[in-house]
Amino acid sequence: MQKSALAKSRCGSRHIVLSGLRHSDGQPSQRRATVRFAGLAPFLHRLCHMNATDLRPHLLAFASHPQLPETQALAGTIALAPRRRGPWRAPLAGLGAHEFDGLLLTYFPAAAPLRPLLHIWREQAEAEKRTGMDEFDDLVALLLAHQTTDAPDSRWLAHAIATASMADNHLWQDLGLPSRVELNALMTTRFTSLKLKNVGDMKWKKFFYRQLCEQAEVLICKSPSCANCCDYSICFGPET
Ligand code: SF4
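A: This is the predicted complex of the input protein with iron/sulfur cluster.
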């Protein structure tokens, strides 16, 4: 769906029809999402005039604990879905409708007005083919093997991190976090043993893939030691 989907929304005082949806190849979609509710006129007005990539502040406004890194990472990953490609355009790849509703109710209990749009994103992404060559499932499994707490939101966060890892920027950027500091805090509290393994503070996406390669006994490094490696700046260093 194109970023301009919401900009083409048609507004009413008590309901809104989200129209103008498009598939990633630019073809018009026949899908329509109708949201009916009362008493939210200011939000409706903003929703009618915002870009689809601006959902994050609205999700955070609807959140139970907007200051938590967990909430910010989930909001960022959901909001940045239109910037990802193919099956990764889901709000959180790999979560079905029921589980995604559970996440919304827990972390964004007032976000019911956004639910129809988010489910359209989810359904459209599910219809996209996966190549079978991606490492998404392995990455979710790696994260869950290191979850600090066996709780539903650990699984949601694992899917958020794996989904964001399929995008092109630094992980903290693809999670919509303010900086790598918040990502490190999130990894420390929610995936403690994995954070402890990243002793050199390697860039997180590089670290994940190195872990997966080590599990598969695939040698990806050009040098036996990071200190002597010509790719050191790719794996470590500042992320701006
Ligand atoms: S710096 Fe070189 S040796 Fe170290 S993880 Fe990166 S590629 Fe491998």
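Strands lie at 10-11, 15-18, 33-36. The two ends are 28 Å apart (CA to CA).
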